Amino acid sequence: GAGVSQTPSNKVTEKGKYVELRCDPISGHTALYWYRQSLGQGPEFLIYFQGTGAADDSGLPNDRFFAVRPEGSVSTLKIQRTERGDSAVYLCASSRDRAAGELFFGEGSRLTVL
Amino acid sequence: GNSVTQMEGPVTLSEEAFLTINCTYTATGYPSLFWYVQYPGEGLQLLLKATKADDKGSNKGFEATYRKETTSFHLEKGSVQVSDSAVYFCALRLNSGGYQKVTFGTGTKLQVIP
Q1: Does residue A108 belong to the interface with chain B, where contact is any CB pair within 8 Å?
Q2: Mean pLDDT split into 10-residue runs, chain A, 114 residues
């Protein structure tokens, strides 16, 4: 499709498990962002990629969280040893380049940690 | 740091009522300002934007004016419709380490009843 695609749309896992969330940005968009949205809150910045490199990972809450974008297109957010507090909707967004203002969001991956 | 504060919801209005959703910001520098909207079951999408002081963004009957003196970007619509029911997010974009970082408010849920 033409938009940002995120999979899975829903993920239920048990505390302590490992989770991967995938984002397929709009073709040709070099900038990619991950945000986390908890219930009743706005999107909270996690990490920004320009091309293959993580240009700003200052929003990652701790070292259990990691993200990659090996070929400068698809990105994977990885969460190790999940905790109940990780439950949230994880949003991916892309933009044409790092200076382009408009972010195009996917529908998000809802993670529930039991 | 940079932040966005918007009025808490939910806001419930009758169809054809006038809408105002307040948004104020704190930023070091001169940000661009945005309103994003999230319809039920959909991803966030850009509603309107303004890139400098006194600019007015408008789209789908919604308007917001960038007021530097009051650091505000209030969203208004003269006559709301049921289809406007959604969550509205105010956001700012500011240069951060060579890229445009976007910071969101907590969102305001609007419910329009017939």
Answers
A1: yes
A2: 90 97 95 92 92 90 96 96 97 83 90 97
